[in-house]
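Intended use. Records like the one below are meant for learning the mapping from a protein sequence to its folded structure. Do not use them to infer anything beyond what is encoded.
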Amino acid sequence: MKHTVSRTLPRVLRRRDARLCLAAVLVSGFGTSALWLVAGVWVKDLTGSDGLAALCLLALWAPTAAGPVLGALADTVRRGPLLISLHLLPAALLPVLTAVDSPGRIWLVFAVLFVYGAVGVVQDAAEAALVAGAVPASLLGEFNGLRMTVSEGLKLVAPPAGAVLYGAYGADAVVLLDAASFALAAGLYACLRVPERSLARGERVRIGVGARHLWRHPRLRPLVLAGGATMLCAGVNGAALYAVIDALGHAPAYAGVLYAVQGAGSVVAGLLAGPALRRLGAHRLAGYGIAVTAVAAGLRAVPSDAVALLCSAAIGAGLPCVLIAAFTAVQRETPDALLGRTAATAHTLVLAPNAVGLAVGAALVEVVDVAVLLAALGVVWAASAALPRQSAASPSRTADRSSSDANPA
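Structure written out for the chain above:
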């Protein structure tokens, strides 16, 4: 596998447009990850309210529910110019937050974060569609794995950097850094040379067609369902984090250690997922990823630091396998004309259950012993590993492999 990684990654990075896309993700992602942490801290400092601080994350995530509608925009205009505009918009909007200096203006934070989240939904859809045209289908798994590695790696670096910047210079410095990161990313997207389909004048775009495509497709439906079930269970698992820390006898700050280990697992998984996808196919890779996370979630019931760290790394490694398998399959198996809507719908169906899982887990952890809860979660999560195998094995395996896989010579 190591030899495969060393052979395929240069093939991705040798492509100019792929490098530019990854650079844009790196630049804008750094600002986003920094602001994600600082926004909650800032609101907490201004208001003293934990509830209002938590609403920052809700404002960012809420637009995900409208993915099928917002994603349609990526199928109605040329995606390159759209991505440039979608990065210039937050670059221009974020400086408005420098006017927030009292609890009475906190509403501006929520409003800007909501728009920020909505723009992010369209960005993801347009980027997924554009990348599918810029990167050969045989390398999409490697690209998406690298993208996951970049995103998860940033989560290890950017939030602490944002916290340091906030402590030294205040929230305005973080806001302006994020705005600058979006402006730079817009410049990188402007350098892309990706051919795009011509849009027919008056072409009608049906919003629900992406959902219908996912539901009727025998290979995509089980992958998206498996992804949604995985993120639902991941939400319950995440809600139990502080109860696990209490059982270990640590202060809440120990969550930072577990998050860092989980992030490291995701970074490694992102590098290996692409070659694994080529070797195993999307359905088997997703099934293995679910099995790993299910076992790790159940074992977190064991009150041991070593086990907790190992389980965090395993969860970090298993989750990206499911997501990369599902989203890469969507890019490969969807016609370009409806890829924006389909990608956005897939993101909603896969990622939105995480919020539901967090809410359910938060309620359960108050009334159920954490060891019992995690053991039951592990069993339920493991059962969902059968979802990716609901499609016919032979067609799925053949479709998930590229032509170069079928002919190694």
